[in-house]
Amino acid sequence: MTPTISGGCLCGSVRYEVSGSLRDIVACHCEQCRRSSGHFVAATACRRAHFRLLQQDSLQWYSAVPGFRRGFCNICGSSLFFEETGKERVSIAAGSLDQPQGLKIAAHIFTAEAGDYYAIEAGVPASPQGGHAVPLPD
Questions:
Q1: Is residue 69 part of a domain?
Q2: Alpha-carbon distance values, 43 to 1, 57, 94 (Å)
Q3: Which of 25, 40, 59, 134 is the most exposed place for a label (fewest CB within 10 A)?
Q4: Is residue 85 part of a domain?
Q5: 47: Cβ contacts below 8 Å, ≥ 6 apart
Q6: Predicted confidence band at 135 (pLDDT cuts at 50, 70, 90)?
Q7: Is 12:54 a contact under the CB 8 Å cutoff?
Q8: Of the candidates 92, 59, 61, which has an alpha carbon nearest to the alpha carbon of residue 73?
Q9: DSSP, residue by residue, 17-78
Q10: Total domain count, the chain
């Protein structure tokens, strides 16, 4: 039996669960992620079929680019989700998980847009643009 993974926002108004496995972390350093989170975004992901919102009254979606949207809590401001609408992947802010999951950073993307106040760890695949080869788990 697959364990259920849970998470949510800082104030508890948005809660979710994942009934499948999570992908290792992709760290996105693009300007949009930096501005929406205050730093780079460390996101895991799952298949949409394994994702379920349990509580979403304060969930708000923002779209800066057509076809993509970011989910956040409109009460506490927690950045929670990123998705391409209508696609299979739901990206989840790793810091919103309730319990450690043993995930590790598997890739860095949009490193050309990274802030100048931190270093990107050596030894992890990095791309100056988007795209990553970290597959979703089954």
A1: yes
A2: 25, 23, 5
A3: 134
A4: yes
A5: 20, 88, 89, 90, 136, 137, 138
A6: confident
A7: no
A8: 59
A9: EESS--PPEEEE--HHHHHHHSS-EEEEEEEGGGEEEEE-TTEEEE-SSTTEEEEEETTT--
A10: 1
Q: Which residue type sits at 104?
A: K
- Indicate whether 94 pLDDT > 80: yes
| Domain of residue 73, CATH code | 2.170.150.70
Q: Which two tokens stand for residue 69?
A: 């949207």
C-alpha 97, offset from chain centre = 10
Best CA proximity match to 15, nearest among 100, 96, 99: 96
Q: CA 98, CA 119: separation in Å to the nearest integer? A: 27
Residue 135 lies in a domain: no
Report pTM: 0.93
